[in-house]
Every structure is written in C-alpha cells, then in structure tokens.
Amino acid sequence: MSSVEHFILITKRSVAHLKLSHDEKLGPK
Questions:
Q1: How far apart, in whole angstroms, are the C-alpha atoms of residue 23 and residue 14?
Q2: Measured between alpha carbons, how far is 18 from 23 in angstroms, rounded to an integer?
Q3: Could you read off the pLDDT of 1-12 as tens digits, one per residue?
Q4: 16 Cβ contact list (under 8 Å, min separation 6)
Q5: So what's the pLDDT on residue 24?
Q6: How far is Cα 18 from Cα 24, in angstroms, rounded to an integer?
C-alpha cells in the first residue's frame, strides 16, 4: 500500500468518526 493510499484511508476514517460524533450530538436527547 502506498503512503498516499494509507493517508486517504486514515483521513476517511477520521472524517467518518467526526461525522458520527457530530450526529450523536444532534441526535435525540
């Protein structure tokens, strides 16, 4: 795996994690 692919994978994972955290805050209380 190239370093670029590795970087993209980490970025996607981070974005997905941030999106999840954000959705939880906006979700039903």
A1: 14
A2: 9
A3: 799 999 999 999
A4: none
A5: 79
A6: 10
pLDDT value at position 25?
Answer: 80
Closest CA to 11 of 23, 3, 28: 3
Tens of pLDDT, residue by residue over 14-28, are: 999 999 888 878 776
The number of residues in the chain equals 29
Distance CA 1, CA 28 (A): 40
Q: Chain-centre distance of CA 8, in angstroms?
A: 11
How many angstroms separate the CA atoms of 1 and 16, rounded?
21
